[in-house]
């Protein structure tokens, strides 16, 4: 690839506290909603009993091994690391009067280490977890009271870390409440549409209030949203399929529209009416929403197809999503369809819609990596996947899209969010631990480690043009 990415482009990886840290009740940390999801976001919820196994209780022990892991990220040449702060490590119950100093001190050490290695932190305030007490006592984001709890937390971390952290995100994949209400908002899975959208509204207001706090407390900081980029294609060019696709894409675009424009789009007025949803929106809410984000970040793993035919939609699948398979695409071991060109399309689509800088903060391939007889992990499939996606990012930049950076998910093996498996490996760094918790937690560089290192060093010029497929 003769094209070089801009010098300011941020290269790195992304992790989440509940999927890497472990130490789930150490140093004053409270239980989070993630701690009662031992089988992942798509699995059963359980009450914690002493002695119960939850692989996330230790995860990959980043809480104790963060220095060594950051050294490995630096060796790869990272200029950015996306992490999340565990809200219940700072406010164990969510509604505490004072923060937990031990939790703040831990992140002090992490950010100091990143600063030492010249790695820019990109920090998510809430990544698929909230203090469990807020879900139990307040019904999660269904309660307006949680807005104040969140803004108190945001203010605390902005004031504590704002001298070292200049890039922030509010909620991870904020649109996931539509598909997994407990994971996204601490709501019962059988909650009504009224409850679900009122909780989403509270999150959007809380996000906007956090944006204002960030602007006030960290004048040189930037804060964005984060959405699950679930781009849909029409299954056919039949007009009703095209309209159905527009409707389904608007389900997740609404979150970008509100956070970018500062008000609900008109198509949601009709949707709320059809659903019988009547949001409680105060004058303060309306004013708060006007504080808009500085950039748009998103995850991208796959695309899917939409159809107006109920019989076709009955066969839809996808990771927490409702998508019809695209016959022109191949799929991963977990059935996620692989569409590098879709990333270029999504980047152009969002740029045309919002004209705000974009940041790809999750993209990667989960696979069952195997240590070969030579002691190495030959993950050429991962290198091919990332090469083809990053190549399309370069194409989008040449199209004129402003892309701030790319943080692959996850640069080190971690516990998957959807299924709580460690065997679903994403990393450039192998972690010796299996789904039953066996292993030494030893870190080992995969072949892709050195490939990504070369890509970063070359500012993308080491990428190769992908082999043409039928979809292209």
UniProtKB/TrEMBL annotation:
Gene Ontology MF, one: 6-phospho-beta-glucosidase activity
Organism: Vibrio palustris
Enzyme class: hydrolase
Protein name: 6-phospho-beta-glucosidase BglB
NCBIfam families, sorted: PRK09852.1
GO CC annotation: cytosol
Record carries keyword Hydrolase: yes
EC numbers on record: 3.2.1.86
Gene coding for it: bglB_3
Statement: the UniProt record of this protein carries the keyword Zinc: no
Lineage of the species this protein comes from: Bacteria, Pseudomonadati, Pseudomonadota, Gammaproteobacteria, Vibrionales
UniProt keyword annotations, A-Z: Glycosidase, Hydrolase
Active site per UniProt: 362
Family stated for the protein in its record: Belongs to the glycosyl hydrolase 1 family.
GO biological process, one term: carbohydrate catabolic process
């Amino acid at each position: 690839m003769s094209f070089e990415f801009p010098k300011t482009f941020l290269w790195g990886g992304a992790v989440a506290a509940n999927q890497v840290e472990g130490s789930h009740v150490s140093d004053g940390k409270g239980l989070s909603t993630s701690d009662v999801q031992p089988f992942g976001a798509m699995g059963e919820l359980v009450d914690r009993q002493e002695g119960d196994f939850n692989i996330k209780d230790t995860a990959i022990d980043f809480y104790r091994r963060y220095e060594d892991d950051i050294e490995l990220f630096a060796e790869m040449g990272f200029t950015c690391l996306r992490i999340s702060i565990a809200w219940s490590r700072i406010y164990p119950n969510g509604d505490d009067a004072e923060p937990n100093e031990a939790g703040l001190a831990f992140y002090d050490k992490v950010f100091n280490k990143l600063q030492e290695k010249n790695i820019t932190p990109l920090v998510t305030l809430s990544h698929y977890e909230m203090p469990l007490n807020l879900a139990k006592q307040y019904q999660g984001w269904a309660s307006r009271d949680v807005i104040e709890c969140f803004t108190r937390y945001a203010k605390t971390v902005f004031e504590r870390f704002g001298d070292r952290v200049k890039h922030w995100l509010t909620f991870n994949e904020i649109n996931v409440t539509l598909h997994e209400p407990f994971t996204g908002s601490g709501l019962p899975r059988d909650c009504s549409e009224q409850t679900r959208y009122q909780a989403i509204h509270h999150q959007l207001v809380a996000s906007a209030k956090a944006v204002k706090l960030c602007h006030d407390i960290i004048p040189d900081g930037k804060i964005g949203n984060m959405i699950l980029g679930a781009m849909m294609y029409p299954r056919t060019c039949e007009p009703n399929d095209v309209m159905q696709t527009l409707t389904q894409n608007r389900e997740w675009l609404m979150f970008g529209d509100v956070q970018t424009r500062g008000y609900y789009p008109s198509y949601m007025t009709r949707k709320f009416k059809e659903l019988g949803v009547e949001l409680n929106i105060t004058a303060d809410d309306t004013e708060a929403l006007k504080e808009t984000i500085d950039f748009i970040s998103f995850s991208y793993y796959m695309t899917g197809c939409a159809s107006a035919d109920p019989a076709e939609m009955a066969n839809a699948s996808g990771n927490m999503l409702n998508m019809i398979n695209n016959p022109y695409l191949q799929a991963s071991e977990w059935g996620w369809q692989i569409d590098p060109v879709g990333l270029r399309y999504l980047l152009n689509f969002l740029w045309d819609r919002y004209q705000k800088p974009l940041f790809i903060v999750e993209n990667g391939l989960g696979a069952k990596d195997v240590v070969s007889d030579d002691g190495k992990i030959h993950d050429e499939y991962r290198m091919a996947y990332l090469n083809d996606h990053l190549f399309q990012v370069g194409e989008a930049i040449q199209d004129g899209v402003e892309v701030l950076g790319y943080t692959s998910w996850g640069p080190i093996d971690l516990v998957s969010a959807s299924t709580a498996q460690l065997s679903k490996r994403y990393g450039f760094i192998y972690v010796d631990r299996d789904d039953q918790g066996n292993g030494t937690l030893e870190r080992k560089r995969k072949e892709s480690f050195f490939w990504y290192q070369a890509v970063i060093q070359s500012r993308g010029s080491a990428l190769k043009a992908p082999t043409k497929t039928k979809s292209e």
